[in-house]
Specification:
It is built from 11 helices and 12 strands. By secondary structure, the protein is of the alpha/beta class. It folds into 2 domains: 128 residues, Quinolinate phosphoribosyl transferase, N-terminal domain (Aldehyde Oxidoreductase, domain 3, Alpha-Beta Complex), CATH 3.90.1170.20; 147 residues, Aldolase class I (TIM Barrel, Alpha-Beta Barrel). Strands 6-11-10-9-8-7 form a 6-stranded parallel β-sheet. Strands 3-5-1-12 form a 4-stranded antiparallel β-sheet, with helices on one face. A two-stranded antiparallel sheet has the order 2-4. Strand 9, helix 9 and strand 10 form a beta-alpha-beta unit. The radius of gyration is 23 Å and the shape is elongated.
Length: 282
């Protein structure tokens, strides 16, 4: 399915437009001639990885179906300053009504893609892939995870229904690592692998003995992670999470882990600057 036509994406766009436009753009109504036509481009202000350009037609179709858009670059493309990424033409008032919503999406999603690319590049010396988490903005998970992919990252589970991740809370509530993992392995739906969070060697061995398909080492130092990965010795894939930054991701990648998951990709990525330039059409 075209991501722009996904129900959750269309809902997000409509909610953003309702929030921003409300009962109408009063400023454009009282200042612009009603039949004024315009042409506009969205420009990057700094080097970035673009994500979300496919939302331009979705935004403007919801405002005025006569507004036309053209995506000038593909999602995932690296661009430099003053690069035009979207062209828009139609009623000037309609273009201005959708300007902020489109820019908000593009700046946020391109920020995630750009931030992800920085982590991917920093970890390039190791074998680990960079993975996102469920720490996403409510209602925007599909879009934010798409942006991670555009930056070269890999998507983790989209929700609680498509993966089994046994965390310390499950272990504490369910009677210990061995009991919980064995119960999960016996009851797991077909095709769902059982991943187990481990804090030390004892939990690693218990999880492996009980049949875990993969392990998660959370909030371990680089040295601790290296020792635990060595202990696993390739028996199952190992993921590292917690406390990973651009400064230390290369060291974590060098431990031999298969994946490094980073919540900051979606919850702390800085927006990238873009702006819209518009002029009256002849």
């Amino acid at each position: 399915m075209d991501l722009g036509q996904h129900p959750s994406v269309k809902r997000a766009v409509l909610a953003a437009l309702e929030e921003d436009i409300g009962r109408g753009d009063v400023t454009s109504t009282v200042t612009l001639p009603p039949h004024l036509m315009g042409t506009a481009v969205v420009l990057a202000e700094a080097p970035c990885v673009v994500a979300g350009v496919f939302l331009a037609p979705v935004v403007f179709a919801a405002i005025d179906s006569r507004v036309a858009t053209e995506c000038l670059v593909a999602d995932g493309a690296p661009v430099g300053p003053e690069t035009a990424v979207v062209r828009i033409w139609g009623a000037a008032a309609a273009i201005l009504a959708g300007e902020r919503v489109l820019l908000n999406f593009l700046q946020h999603l391109s920020g995630i893609a750009t931030f992800t690319r920085r982590f991917v590049d920093a970890a390039a010396g190791g074998s680990a892939v960079i993975v996102d988490t469920r720490k996403t903005t409510p209602g925007l998970r599909l879009l934010e995870k798409h942006a991670v992919k555009m930056g070269g990252g890999v998507n983790h589970r989209f929700g609680l229904d498509d993966g089994i991740l046994i965390k310390n809370t499950h272990v504490a509530l369910g009677g210990g690592t061995d009991a919980v993992v064995r119960r999960a392995c016996a009851a797991a739906p077909a095709g769902l692998r059982v991943q187990v969070e481990c804090r030390g060697a004892a939990e690693v061995e218990a999880a492996l003995a009980a049949g875990a398909d993969s392990l998660l080492l959370d909030n371990r130092s680089v040295e601790e992670a290296r020792e635990l990965v060595r202990l696993v010795a390739g028996r199952v894939p190992v993921e590292i999470s917690g406390g990973v930054t651009l400064e230390n991701v290369a060291a974590y990648a060098a431990t031999g882990a298969a994946r490094i998951s980073i919540g900051a990709l979606t919850h702390s990525a800085p927006a990238v600057p873009l702006h819209l330039r518009i002029e009256a059409a002849g």
